[in-house]
Each structure stands twice: as structure tokens, then as C-alpha cells.
Design brief:
The structure is a homodimer of 304-residue chains. The first copy, chain A, is of the alpha/beta class and 304 residues long. The first copy, chain A, folds into 2 domains: 170 residues, 3-Layer(aba) Sandwich (Rossmann fold), CATH 3.40.50.720; 89 residues, 6-phosphogluconate dehydrogenase C-terminal fold (Orthogonal Bundle), CATH 1.10.3660. In chain A, 49% of the residues lie in helices and 12% in strands. Chain A contains 13 helices and 9 strands. In chain A, helix 2 links the parallel strand 2 and strand 3. In chain A, helix 4 runs parallel beside helix 5 and helix 7 crosses helix 11. The radius of gyration of chain A is 21 Å and the shape is globular. Chains A and B meet through helix 7, helix 8, helix 9, helix 10 and helix 11 of A and helix 7, helix 8, helix 9, helix 10 and helix 11 of B.
Amino acid sequence: MTAFGKIAIIGLGLIGSSIAHAARRGLLADEVVGFDASADVRTRAAALGFCDAVAEDAASAVTDAGLVILCVPVGACGAVAKEIAPHLKPGAILSDVGSVKGAVIGDVGPHVPDGVHFIPAHPIAGTEFSGPEAGFASLFDGRWAILTPLPGADAAAVERLKAFWQGLGSNVDVMDPSHHDLVLAITSHLPHLIAYNIVGTAHDLEKVTEGEVIKYSAGGFRDFTRIAASDPTMWRDVFLNNREAVMDVLGRFNEDLAVLQRAIRDGDGDKLFDFFTRTRAIRRAIIELGQESAAPNFGRDSKS
Amino acid sequence: MTAFGKIAIIGLGLIGSSIAHAARRGLLADEVVGFDASADVRTRAAALGFCDAVAEDAASAVTDAGLVILCVPVGACGAVAKEIAPHLKPGAILSDVGSVKGAVIGDVGPHVPDGVHFIPAHPIAGTEFSGPEAGFASLFDGRWAILTPLPGADAAAVERLKAFWQGLGSNVDVMDPSHHDLVLAITSHLPHLIAYNIVGTAHDLEKVTEGEVIKYSAGGFRDFTRIAASDPTMWRDVFLNNREAVMDVLGRFNEDLAVLQRAIRDGDGDKLFDFFTRTRAIRRAIIELGQESAAPNFGRDSKS
């Protein structure tokens, strides 16, 4: 018998399917049952076979599960929680994987029955691909998962969920939900917004064709297209649900950009040079922490 | 005897050293002679051995060379051209590799002696590393090099330079200099400016520590740190010398970002979803054209 016995994964996209793969690799469950609101996704997931069973409804997926993980877009968590709440086993842990924690807590919290431990979580891992075919067992290896338990959360339950994420390959941190949302606003949400925006700008220019943008993208532009290819539904929900923190960091970004813009306009080479110099160290630190490839060009060309 | 006999490379950083490596691989020269203004770089380049000889001054490097390529920051091209002009062989081709063509033409053009063919060029290739150790022979393979000959340029000389770049592994296009500068403003210069800026913004936040930014960078931020680690001198010069085109595309970027910002503020999910949906196709096209890795996460994790 594993720590949770049966695990239920609601939502079988990139993250849900990767959890299933990694849980199997780590022997973390007696049984992994998946469910997805899309019948097409259920069929594809069943054919891929990364779950022991794919349920036809969320209620039967969560019945008797010791751990239930919501792997749906942030905006869908509340409705799913409401639907499954009556079927949750006493003592079960209910968790999620959303990029925003404050809104999920607000939406899910009210539906959690007494005796069920609601412990929000967020793995900082992903790719630009979506859907059940995109998942793989090593997605979380060496990446960080952040748990944001509420005040008064059961410490033993938090430890059990922490051990589960470590079993999936993650390092685990515990953080206050509102601080999480601010940290992710700068490390993830703003980068995605900026990437989507610059790809949009390039798309709309009249004097440079899209064909030219594509052909000469190796000059830097192509780096941005990766995260701008991420799932639109997920990202719509992130921005709708982390508005305040995103506006905060976006305001800072705009202020900083105005300073650079003025330095260019004024021909202030010293200011530009100083700015461009201090941004090198941060990449070295990311590489040293094992969160990035040290190879040139992300190692994408494997030619050096 | 090769097409140019002796080739001179002035500036032995990432691009200059890669040209030397690739010219040797392609048997494109009888002799490759390099020079760099830095005595330290000359010593390192001589030890690395990618040139047949490293000259002690620019004048002797270019003497008798059939092809001279300036591989120095854009802002230094004019002074170098002035210095070497008296030593250029009649019939030689003088070229460069700068990311800006209009300014280089304005700075170099007046110094070019009669009988020397000045043909500006720009290979759209690079990595985030700098210096003579960073170069490698395959850097230009499958990437585009853009030639921007002036009106009345000798067609045979243009063809010879085109063949040289093809020999280095590049595809070659010919373009008007001012159009080049606009195309590069969106495909390369603005992406670098935005990347430098977001890394700076993250660095300066009070409420999120740099340690947190580094730890959780896999959420998207780390993608930006690569091009924000590029050579500060090169990029200072790019922005000082392509001001008008950069201001043009930056203005568009800011307008587009204001629209996204308002959509977030207004909670306009449909607008966000539509915007995030139309940016996917451009990445697919870049991959199909062989300018990007199809693997998740640029293939950086090699885990999938």
C-alpha cells in the first residue's frame, strides 16, 4: 500500500499526464485514475495508457482516492471542486497545480468538505506543448514545486504532499499564497505576456513581412516564440486571476523600458552599456542552480 | 589558389573566430590572418590556432588580402576602415558583419579607396557567448546571411562574397540596407532590448528576491536570460546606430502591450484568448523552415 492508495488526476493535459507518468515511475500510487472534461482527451489518454483507468466522470474518479489533484486551467478549479466535493474521501488531500494560488484558494476553498485537506500546489515546470501526448515522466525532475498551505493546515498532510512531489522528482518549497503570486508574476506571467506581445507586434508590422520575421528569427526573436506557443486557455486564466500582481510587475517593466527608450533616444551609450552589463550574472546563477542548460543557444543546435 | 587567396579578419570575437573556423573547414582561403585591437585577445586567438597567423597590427593583416571582413562592434567600423584603407589591395572586397547596415555604410563608405569593393554583410547567427573561445565552424550552417550592396556595386564582387558565405554554410539573401535595419529591429534588436529590460526589472524588484527569481526561472523567465547575456558593447552600439528603426518597432510594441494591459485590467478573457491563439503558428513556421528546434523547451533538457 502506497501513501495515498488511489490517486485521482482531474485534467489530463501536459501537467496531469506528466504527473501520471512520474507517479508510475516512482511507484507512488496503488492506482492512478484520470478524468478529463473532454471526451476526446479521455479517449486519447486511455489509448496512451499512462493512467491505470480513465473515468467517465469526475465523481467516480475521485471516489476512494487518497489524493486528488486538479490539473485544469485556473479558472475551472472552482467548478470542478464544487462537482467533486461530495465524493471526496474523509482524510483525502485535495490539491492543484495552478500558476495562481490566491484565486484558486478563493474559488476552491469554500467547497472543501470538513475532514478533507486542501493544500494548493504549483510545479514550476512545463513545455510549450499541450495535451495528453505532451506529458513525460521526467518533467518535474530537478524543478521546484511550491506548496501554499493555508493557515492551520494539517502539518502531516503537508508533509505527505511534499513527499509526493519529491517522489515525482521535484524540489519542494512552502510559501505564502500571495507571495507565490507575486514571484510567479515576474518569473512566469510577465515573461509570457511579453513574449505573446512581441510575437503579436511582429505579426502586425506592415513594412516587414511575416516571412521575413520567420526567416531571420535566429537573431533573437525565435527565443520568444517558444513560450508564446503555450496553451491559450491556461494563460487567459492566469492573467484573469492574477491581475493585481501582473499589473504591479508590468508597471515596473514599463517604467524600466521607458528609461531604456530614453537612453536610446538620447544616445546615452554609457547608460545602455551599464544596463546590458548587469544582466549577465543572473543567467550564470540560473545555470549554476541547475535550472538551465549551460550550452550555447540552449543547446538547441548541438553543433558547438 | 582559392577565390580570395588571403583573407583578413579584423576582430576575433564570436563571429570573427567562427568565420576563421568555417573558412578553414570549407577550404575557402589560402591563408586566414586575424587581428584584434586587444593584445589579450590576440594572444588567446594565436593559442587557439584558428587563424594561420595573428597580425600585430590591422595594416599588416589586410595587406595583400583579397577579402577583408570587419568583425568589430558596429560603432568601431568607421575608425578601423580609416586605419586600414591605405593598405587595402586594389580589387579586394571589404565587408563586415554588423547588425546595423545604414550606419556602417555611412561610417565606412567615405574611407573606401577607389578600386576596392565595399559590400556590407550581416550573418543572422550567434550565441550568447563572446570572445575568441566562443567561435565554432558550424555557427553559420543553415542560417541566413544578408548582403546589402550599395547601388552600382560590382555584380561579380557581390557574387564572389555570396559564394564565400555559402561556403561558410549560410543561405544568402540580398537586401536594401534600410530594409535590413527595419527587419533586424523587429527580429533581433527589439527582442534583445525587451530581454535586457525584463531581466533588469526582475533584478530591481524589492518584494521578490533575486534568489527567488533564479530558483523559479523555469516558469518562463530563464528563456529571456539567454539573449540578455549577450555582449554589452556590441548591443550598446546596435542601439546607438539603429535608433530610428528600433524606436519605430518599440513604439508598436508599447501600443500592443497597452492593449493587452487594458484587456487584463478589464478582465476581457476573449480578447486575451484570441491574442494568445494567433501567436502559435509563427513558431511552427520557424521550425518548419529549419531555424528552430522542434523539441520541447528548445531540447535543453533532453528528457522528453
